[in-house]
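Page 37, continued from 36.
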């Protein structure tokens, strides 16, 4: 399967950026929100490249190390990749993970020295927690557990790392103010909603691996209901910011995924009292995909908005 060099490169990409970590597209969304609210800077392409690289490097480091650390769970799931096929050894995987994290740290230090010295502070917190979240080799051994192995520490990780990552990203673009904090809060609700869905999706393998995720500990219907309500808070929160002119009209493109969510996910699940069946699993899959659809639609709306502002 990985006999050719090109196959090994493809295998590395599958471990690191396919699919990208959920934090990455949100950072790109932040950039378009920034230029709509603050105006298009003279060096817009250079600024976008910096934001893109910051997101890409960290998405790759988180995703790659998580896949290396999850080799046992992935074998249980029957996943085939460079690690589970033992083409890439665990030791080499750890060294590559350290290298990716080091690149992210150096990049953040450079940004702190050239843009805003405070960028490095939330970034270090973000790096520490994301490493410990996956790490079964060093911090996992030292503390006796990985953060992902218990639903409370998993929740704490998301509640710490996403705001820290967001604040570092925003500081690359502009100073922090109340509007930024409101936007980060709303996207945090979406990320927690996504986390609950991910736990539901991974329920079977988490049980076999002994991971006490939300889906293992709590009833699935409760998680679906909580995730849906958080999703609704996110949608209507962005609409509210648009109505109050905190965000421009491009944000109203969110009405498309909102309508899809209500019609294809929320009402069908509620009508079945949030109980999972074979039919409901298809609905949950739609819900999962709709989150990524939301990112794409928002980016599209903000691009269209920016284009019209630039043209007229």
């Amino acid at each position: 399967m990985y006999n050719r060099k090109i196959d090994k490169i493809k295998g590395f990409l599958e471990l690191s950026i396919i699919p990208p970590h959920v934090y990455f597209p949100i950072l790109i969304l932040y950039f378009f929100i920034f230029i709509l609210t603050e105006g298009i800077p003279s060096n817009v392409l250079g600024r976008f490249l910096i934001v893109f690289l910051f997101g890409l490097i960290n998405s790759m480091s988180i995703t790659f190390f998580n896949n290396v650390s999850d080799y046992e769970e992935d074998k249980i799931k029957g996943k085939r990749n460079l690690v589970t096929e033992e083409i890439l050894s665990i030791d080499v995987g750890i060294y590559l993970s350290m290298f990716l994290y080091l690149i992210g740290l150096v990049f953040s230090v450079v940004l702190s020295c050239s843009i805003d010295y405070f960028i490095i502070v939330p970034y270090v917190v973000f790096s520490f927690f994301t490493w410990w979240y996956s790490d079964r080799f060093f911090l996992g051994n030292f503390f006796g557990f990985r953060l992902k192995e218990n639903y409370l520490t998993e929740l704490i990780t998301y509640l710490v790392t996403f705001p820290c990552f967001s604040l570092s990203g925003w500081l690359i673009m502009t100073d922090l103010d109340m509007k930024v904090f409101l936007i980060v809060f709303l996207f945090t609700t979406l990320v927690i909603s996504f986390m609950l869905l991910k736990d539901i999706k991974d329920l079977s393998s988490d049980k076999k691996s002994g991971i006490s995720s939300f889906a293992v500990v709590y009833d699935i219907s409760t998680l679906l209901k909580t995730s849906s309500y958080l999703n609704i808070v996110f949608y209507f929160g962005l609409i509210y910011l648009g109505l109050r002119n905190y965000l421009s009209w491009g944000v109203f493109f969110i009405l498309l995924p909102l309508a899809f969510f209500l019609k294809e996910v929320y009402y069908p699940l509620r009508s079945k009292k949030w109980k999972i069946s074979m039919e409901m699993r298809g609905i949950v899959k739609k819900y999962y995909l709709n989150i990524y659809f939301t990112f794409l639609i928002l980016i599209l709306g903000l691009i269209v908005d920016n284009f019209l502002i630039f043209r007229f």
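Residues 68 and 90 are 7 Å apart (CA to CA). Flag for discussion at group meeting. The first helix runs from residue 5 to 16.
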